[in-house]
Amino acid sequence: MDLNQVYRNTVLSVANNKTVQDIVKQRAWSVAKRFVAGEERQTAIAAVKDMEKVGVHGILDLLGEFVDTEAKANEFADEIIRLLDAAEGQGFPIYVAIKLSSVGQKITLANGENLGMVNARRILKRAKELNAFVALDMEDHPLVDLTLEQFRTLVGEFGNQTVGTVLQAYLYRTEQDRASLDDLKPNLRIVKGAYLEPESVAYPNKRDVDLQYRRLVYQHLKAGNYCCVATHDESIIEDVKRFVQMNKIPYSQFEFQMLYGIRRDLQVQLAKEGYTVRAYIPYGSDWYAYFSRRIAERPANVMFVLRGMLRG
Fold first, then answer.
1. Which candidate, 139, 144, 68, 146, places its Cα nearest to that of 107?
2. What is the percent of the chain with per-residue pLDDT over 90, rounded to a whole number?
3. Is 137 a catalytic residue?
4. 19 pLDDT more than 80
5. Is 25 annotated as a binding residue?
6. Residues with Cβ < 8 Å from 215, sequence gap 6 or more?
7. Alpha-carbon gap, residue 284 to 83, rounded angstroms
8. Of 61, 137, 177, 210, which one is the catalytic site residue?
9. Mean pLDDT in the chain?
10. Catalytic site residue 140?
């Protein structure tokens, strides 16, 4: 296991400690606002409009995961629909990310239906009416099979212009998963992966993750599918630029995606070069898990947080 992976695993392990959670939640909101666009949908919509001024689109994401009651799952889905309605007519393409676990993926109703699918259908119905796009975020490895199965069903019902999903390069299985979806011509976001996964299912070394990341993007593009290249790694971005030029892949077949609050300069630069660029703009009160994964991505983020907490 390389040092990058050791660092990430250590940070995620510490972040899951209850005492650490309590301290960070009390002291770090002023710092978390670098990565999270407030707690209300209006602040998130305002953040999208701000990014649009510099040619970067937004991905709206209400934070929250692993919802465990029917009432909470339904309320979460209701809020996503309210978000779609609030974004209507605001002058930007509507793009929303959801976690199926947030809308009831782990809950089976009395009639045998999966609540996550019931709520996903409600959300996607409204999204299709608004010509909006919904990306189904991928979570840790025990949920991959179910998420891909549900994604396949939803593409069949709503089409690949309305719904897409995410694949994680650090999982050994992902190359096979990507190929298995080719018949759907899916819109896929390719990410490296941000959860704490065991070596039995995920590459422990950054070099291997980076190699698989490139393979996935290249294979998806060569298959003629739409690819969302979600990375801040400039070496990968430059390699993707060269690949699309060499293979005459149109700019309309892919986009670059990055995170709100990280490398805005690079986002703006890519947009000026004519590429489609989106920033992932999360909001909501349930920000701690997302914030922890951002800290785990690079040591500089820890120092940024500690300085902010000390000032607070």
1. 68
2. 74
3. yes
4. no
5. no
6. 175
7. 12
8. 137
9. 88
10. no
